[in-house]
Structures are given as structure tokens and as C-alpha cells.
């Protein structure tokens, strides 16, 4: 059970920015007092497109907090680096059961390292299994399929943001079960904070917040090179989007689905 959980959690983090939500992701705009959701979408889409186009790379500390309906809470902390077109690195900082776990993508290959078992899972990245790069496309998708309301401006961790409410249009569809509030960076259209709540659940929620965000710092390519830890073994290497134990990135990546739906 613990191995299944760790596998799911490690794979969950891998796609995030692109992963990551993470990872993720969402919305932007200009304050629009005329109540027109479409007008707000058009304005925000322009901010996202222009903001993301100006980003070459970024780094941050990603904090995720999940709360179940029974009140159980789990908080994780991960150092994230991303570089266009599709390079990213996740170093897990806490809690202890994932500390020192690592995910690296160099654009062609993905490595997922489980420090507790000293094992590495590796996958080729091909056009058929490569997720969308960066946060821009995810944000624009969220804008397209949901209703959008811009609430106010607010500064989060030194970043000037628009606070935006995202409401699903069709409650019968899967995406209709998720209601989001997003703090979107005005300069880069980046989702600095996101809180998701679920239809029919009063207490359950999922929060992602990025701290110490740094954009366009010329992150060197060697940051996205994976160095095999001493004594580590490779337990999957089939070149497809399926691990040798039958688990797939899609089936494990709960956070990615949350951000994309």
C-alpha cells in the first residue's frame, strides 16, 4: 500500500508545472466591472498569452495542501524549476516520506527517483505521451470552458495578482465538480495561488501556492540533467507512457487532472 501511494504521489508531481500546476493551470485579466464574463475572458486571455510568451524560465517553492472531507490534511513542499520548451525539475523538500524524491524532464526523457527505495523510473518523452509545456495552455483552457469573474487585486508573496473566481458552466460534466479561486500574476499570467473545492463536499479542498517565484533567470541546462544516485536501480524502462508495473502517468496524475479539468 505504501509503495502504491509513493508511486502515485511521485508520478502525480511529475506532470505538474507543465507541471506544474503545478501544476498547474489558470487565469488572468483586467478588472471588469460591466459583468461580462466573455469580455473578462478576452482580456485575461490576452494577459496570459502575452505574459507566458515573455517567460523563458522560472523557479519557485511549490506548496500543496490537500484537505479530505474527514478533515485529514496533507501538506507538501517542492522546489520547482522550469525552462521552455519542456524542461523541468522537482526536488521534494517535505514531508519526510517524500523528502529527497526527485523528478527531472530534459525535453526527451523523464526520470522519477524514489529516495526511500533508491529506485529510478524512466520514460521516453514522445509526441504521443508528452504533456503540454508550461502553464499557458492550461490557463487558457480553464478560461475557455468555465465562467470567469474578476474579484479584486491582491499582492501575494510580493507579486501583484488578480483574484479570479472560476465557476463551471455545466455541473453534469466532470469539470463542473470543481470550483476554483485563482490569484493570477499580472505581469506573467502565472497562477501564484489556486484553491479548488469540490461540488457536493463541504470540507474537501486542494490548494497550490508558489513562493519565491523568479522569472527569466537564465537557468542553466545542466539543472535538467539527471545524475543517477549511488546504488540506485532502474525498475522501469519501456520507452512508453507505461511503467513496467502497469501504472501510467495519466492514471497517477491526480493534480494534473485537477488543473486541466
How is this structure best described in words?
The chain has one domain: outer membrane lipoprotein receptor (LolB), chain A (Clam). Strand 5 (109-114) and strand 6 (119-124) form a beta hairpin. It has 261 residues and is α+β, with helices and mostly antiparallel strands. The chain has helices at 2-14, 37-53, 136-145, 249-252, 254-260, and strands at residues 57-67, 73-83, 87-94, 102-105, 109-114, 119-124, 146-156, 159-168, 178-185, 191-198, 205-215, 233-236. The radius of gyration is 18 Å and the shape is globular. 37% of the residues are buried. The protein has a 12-stranded mixed beta sheet with strand order 7-8-9-10-11-1-2-3-4-5-6-12. 20% of the residues lie in helices and 38% in strands.
Question: What's the gist of this structure?
Answer:
The protein has helices spanning 2-14, 37-53, 136-145, 249-252, 254-260, and strands at residues 57-67, 73-83, 87-94, 102-105, 109-114, 119-124, 146-156, 159-168, 178-185, 191-198, 205-215, 233-236. By secondary structure, it is of the alpha+beta class.
Number of helices: 5
Q: What is the makeup of the main sheet? A: 12 strands, mixed
State the total count of DSSP E strands: 12
The level of helicity is 10-25%
- What is the CATH topology classification name? outer membrane lipoprotein receptor (LolB), chain A
CATH homology group: Lipoprotein localisation LolA/LolB/LppX
Assigned CATH architecture: Clam
The spatial strand order of the largest sheet comes to 7-8-9-10-11-1-2-3-4-5-6-12
- Taken from the alpha-carbon principal axes, the silhouette is globular
Euclidean distance between termini CA atoms: 28 Å
What's the Cα radius of gyration?
Answer: 18 Å
The number of distinct structural domains comes to 1
Strand fraction equals: 35-45%
Amino acid at each position: 500500500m505504501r509503495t502504491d501511494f509513493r508511486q502515485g504521489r511521485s508520478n502525480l508531481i511529475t506532470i505538474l508545472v507543465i507541471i506544474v500546476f503545478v501544476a498547474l493551470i489558470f487565469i488572468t485579466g483586467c478588472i471588469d466591472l460591466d459583468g461580462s464574463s466573455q469580455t473578462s475572458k478576452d482580456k485575461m486571455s490576452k494577459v496570459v498569452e502575452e505574459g507566458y510568451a515573455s517567460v523563458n524560465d522560472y523557479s519557485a517553492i511549490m506548496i500543496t495542501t490537500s484537505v479530505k472531507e474527514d478533515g485529514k490534511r496533507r501538506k507538501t513542499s517542492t522546489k520547482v524549476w522550469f525552462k521552455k520548451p519542456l524542461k523541468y525539475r522537482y526536488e521534494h523538500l517535505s514531508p519526510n516520506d517524500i523528502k529527497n524524491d526527485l523528478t527531472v524532464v530534459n525535453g526527451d526523457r523523464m526520470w522519477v527517483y524514489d529516495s526511500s527505495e533508491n529506485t529510478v523510473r524512466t520514460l521516453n518523452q514522445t509526441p504521443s505521451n508528452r504533456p503540454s509545456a508550461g502553464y499557458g495552455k492550461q490557463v487558457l483552457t480553464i478560461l475557455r470552458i468555465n465562467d470567469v469573474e474578476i474579484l479584486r487585486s491582491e499582492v501575494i508573496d510580493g507579486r501583484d495578482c488578480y483574484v479570479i473566481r472560476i465557476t463551471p458552466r455545466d455541473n453534469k460534466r466532470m469539470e463542473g465538480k470543481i470550483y476554483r479561486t485563482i490569484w493570477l500574476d499580472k505581469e506573467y499570467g502565472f497562477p501564484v495561488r489556486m484553491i479548488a473545492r469540490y461540488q457536493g463536499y463541504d470540507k474537501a479542498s486542494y490548494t497550490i501556492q508558489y513562493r519565491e517565484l523568479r522569472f527569466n533567470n537564465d537557468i542553466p541546462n545542466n539543472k535538467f540533467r539527471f545524475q543517477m544516485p549511488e546504488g540506485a536501480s532502474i525498475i522501469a524502462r519501456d520507452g512508453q507512457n507505461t511503467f513496467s508495473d502497469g501504472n501510467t502517468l495519466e492514471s497517477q496524475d491526480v493534480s494534473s487532472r485537477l488543473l486541466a479539468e
